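Hello,

Our lab assistant flagged a job as stuck in the queue for most of the afternoon. It eventually completed. Since we weren't sure the result was trustworthy after the delay, we are filing this so someone can double-check. Below is the sequence as submitted and the structure that was eventually returned. Let us know if re-running is recommended.
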Amino acid sequence: LAVALAECCMTGSKWVGADIETSPPAPLLSKERVAANRRTGEVALLFAETQSRIIVSAKEKDLPALLKIAKVRRCPASVLGKVGGKRLKIADSIDVSVEDLHQIWSTGFERSLCAE
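-- returned structure --
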């Protein structure tokens, strides 16, 4: 989820940040697991490779209709945060500019080849 969100911030010609909460809704992680260890739940939500997750951006006014469609189709859906600004903020764990994200992403392969 964290990598997908970072990539979403850099898609298109105009980069944009997001402010994301990590209190996972029931369809993503059980309340018991999160309550037992908040930090583990946050890390699992952000970095687990759970299949069939889709990130959708919508205007705030369209959220009720989008969530209703998901409910009717029995597709678990929840609001993770808001798009905007120039930084990707994920709870208290991550706060990085989209420009820095792009720099890290675009030079990752090059840096790995130069690493000793």
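-- support follow-up --
The delay was a queue issue, not a problem with the job. The result is valid. Strands lie at 18-20, 81-83, 87-90, 94-97. The helical segments are 2-9, 31-36, 38-47, 63-72, 98-114.
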